[in-house]
Structures are given as C-alpha cells and as structure tokens.
Amino acid sequence: MHQVHPALRQPVTAADRVLQEIQRAIVEGDIAAGSKISEPELARRFDLSRAPLREALARLERCHLIERIPNAGARVVKLSVAGLLALYQLRENLEGLACKLAAEQMSDTEIAEVRQLLDQHLSSQRVREGESYYQEAGDLDFHYRIILGSKNSYLINILCDELYYLVRMYRVQLGMNGPRVSRAFDEHKAIINAIANRDGELADLLMRRHIAASRRNIELKLQQMGS
Amino acid sequence: MHQVHPALRQPVTAADRVLQEIQRAIVEGDIAAGSKISEPELARRFDLSRAPLREALARLERCHLIERIPNAGARVVKLSVAGLLALYQLRENLEGLACKLAAEQMSDTEIAEVRQLLDQHLSSQRVREGESYYQEAGDLDFHYRIILGSKNSYLINILCDELYYLVRMYRVQLGMNGPRVSRAFDEHKAIINAIANRDGELADLLMRRHIAASRRNIELKLQQMGS
DNA sequence: CGCCCATAGATTGTCGACAATTTACGCCTA
DNA sequence: TAGGCGTAAATTGTCGACAATCTATGGGCG
C-alpha cells in the first residue's frame, strides 16, 4: 500500500480535527479576518486542551491563515490587494510549472479521468446555472488533479497544503461569479487538451492566463469593496 | 519600526533555540539522515520538556528536514537523487521568478550592496582559495539577497524558510567543490548585472542555468556515492 | 516452518497547572 | 490634559504526568 499525500489524509488526531474546523471557519469568514486568536477561548469553544490547539495553530501559520508573534499571540490574516497580487503571482508561476510537469508525468488514464471530471462538471453546471459553490469546488478539484499530476512532492505540498487555503479564502470571501464561471470551464478544457497533447509549454501558458484572469476578477471585487 | 522577516529573526523562545540546534545537527549530518527521531531522547539531550521540542519538530517538518507520521513518530529525511531533482526543479523555477521580480523591485542601493558583497567574496576567495565553507556561506548570502529583493513575502517564505535548509543539507553532506566554486562567482556577477540592467527575463534565465549547473554537480556526487 | 495473534513495552498525543512575558489600566507628574 | 511609570490581569510558553496508540517480542496454530 503506498502512502497517500498528506493533503488529502483524513484527520486522525484531535489536533487534526480542530485544525480542519478552524481552517474552515477562517476561510469562510466565520472567524473574522484580522481578528485576534485567543488560545483559551478557542480551547473552550472546541472543548480540548491548549496542547493540540497550539499544534493546530502552528499548521495554520504554515498555510498563512494566521500570523503569530512570539509571546504576543496570533491574528487571522487580513485580505488585501497587495497580498492577493503576491499570492497569485506565485500561483501563476507554480501552477504553470505544475502544468508543464503534468504534461510529462501524467498517465493517459489520469488524463482521461480529469476529462471525465470536466464533462461531469459541465453537465451539472447546465442544470445548476450560476451555482457558484459547485464551480468553486469543481475548479479546486481540477487544479488539484493537475498539481498532483506533476508528481513533484514539494510542489504539491506548497500548492495544496500551504497556499490553497488562502486562495480559497480570497475566493470565498470575495466571491467568484458572473461570466467567469462559464469561461473557466473552457479554459480548463483547453489546459487538459494541451496536457493530453504532451504540450507542456502551451499548458503552462494557458494555466498562467487562466489564473491571471481569475486574479483580475477578485482584484476588481476587492477594489470595489475598498471604495 | 518595520517587522523583519521571520527567516532572519533571532530566537526568543526555547523552542526557537532547540529548533536551530536540531536544524544545524540535521543539515550537517550530526543527526544521521534517515534515522528515527525520539522525542524523549532529544528532550533529555537538550534539557527541556517535550512541549517546546514538539513545537520545534513541527517546524522541522515544515522545512522538510523530518517526516512525521501520526502516532508513529518522526524520521530524518533521506537524501536521494529523486528528491534532489524534485527540489531543484522547484528551486530553478522559484529563484528564476525571484530574479525576474528583483529586476523590477530592487532599489539601486540594494543592487549596489549586492555588488559590494560579491567583490568582498571575490577578494576573500583569492586569499582562501578553494575554501568551500566560505563559498557555501557566500553563495547562500547572494541567493538570499536576490530572494529578499523580490519583495514577495510568500516567495521569500517558501525559499528562505521552507526549502533552503534542505538545499543546504544536500550541499553540506554531498559537498560542493572543484571548479564549480570559481565559476559560481562569475555566474553571480552576470545575474546581478542583468538585474541592474532591469532585464528580468535574462536574470531569470541565468539563475535557472546557475542552479541547474549546481544540481548537476551534486547529482554526480550522489551517483558516485550510490555506486 | 511460516504466519497470525496476544501481550508487554515504549512512544506519541493530550491534559491541567505553573512560570515568564506581554498587555491593560490607573495613577502620578509635568 | 497628555505622557510616562508601576502594578495587576490576562495571555503565551513550559513543565510533568496520564491516556491512547503503535511496535516488538513470544507463543500458538495451521
């Protein structure tokens, strides 16, 4: 039996469970962005001691959802245009690389499975027109598959474990909707086609554009909010 | 007063201190690659309780120096050709990006400081011909400056906090020496020149080649050892 | 003889309390 | 009234002990 990647490992310890709960709470804005994290309060709220809670906080810091200062506590990260640009700058590059590697590394069956996934999304999208949650989940699922397809464990770790929660936080709290939703499907299709043709260079380019378009969408929302 | 980057923050807590000690021990092979980490043993050895030690272990996992399995403990990472390739594949891309950004973001004074640093290295190299430790430290210093020059905090975090200890581990344990040492200086010079000319594309290319050359050097060593 | 299972030992995960540090408040002073 | 200082409260960091889980050894069974 081969070891599954930590990113999709199910929680076994109390720290794992509380981590997932707090992650969800922060990503969905249930715990407000910029607010202070109180260890005693969270410990009471989730009914466990501070030891596993602190373990969870360490991992939250790892995925950039909180910022800790020694002896002074932790704060939930604040969303900003500058932060979004820095994050997506990196994402464009890394997921572009993931595409290039996936074009070399993914097996034909893996590629077929991703195509099947896209067809599945397309049909469910026709039914639930404009339903942004499914789009969100479907988009993530697509990106995950490509990233895993790169077969580079360090790259997988950075994207799936360390950056994606923050990406989701921007997307959930600032919303992705409008005409982007339907276009994203076409872009996904073009990307997997390039990978199927083993054209890593093109897949890289298309993924960068895909992510840049997504960034502009959120950037606009952020600026609208700011004004 | 603005906040310094965590990468060069000095230790304030016991967990910070023991982290640095264990990091050094693993990187330099003082704690053997592939060996099991025993929490009680390390706690005795560094004369502290398991709480700060576990905090340190969490961060060691973050920079890929150990691998943990829930309820089963931690092992020091094993060096391998496959791991080296995956790591350097990522490094080429990320430091290439850092160069591109540095060409846009670094101030003229920052660039001048890096040039001064290189001159300094060159003169000290002439005196200590072939001294690999200084080369090692100097090379790291150069790369750090470029990375910090990118001004992208996520990129800085990944390279300086999460990947560089492992890079150093490969370099220290498998050694960088021979003709590479003197060539690296010239390559550094060419890279900072490209950045000074605000030619991000060239700086990117040169850095990728620089890192690829370094990889081949270590790869050779690893294969010699394996046979 | 090899494989499986049970038990004993050791290790990791979790808990509650104490120590060290930071933050908040009130007081004094200029 | 604004600012600085000292104390008190709260928070974080650390400790030692207990509970849950895994590993290893030995015995039984096919």
TrEMBL record, chains A, B:
The keyword Nucleotide-binding does not apply. Residues 12-79 form the HTH gntR-type domain. InterPro entries: GntR_C, Tscrpt_reg_HTH_GntR. SMART domains: FCD (SM00895), HTH_GNTR (SM00345). The keyword DNA-binding applies. Signal peptide: none annotated. It comes from the Bacteria. Keywords: DNA-binding, Transcription, Transcription regulation. This is GntR family transcriptional regulator. It comes from Arsukibacterium indicum.
